[in-house]
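Example noted here:
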Amino acid sequence: MKSINIDEEMRTYATAESQKRHTHIKHHFEVTHFSDAERDETGF
């Protein structure tokens, strides 16, 4: 099974982008193991 390793640079960029786009992000389903901020960062 392949996996994706998210390094600190990627996490920093994702955090900045999610903060900029927060008001426009629409979650289409519930994911209980992520917070809203984590969902914004990962795209769920």
In short: The mean pLDDT is 79.
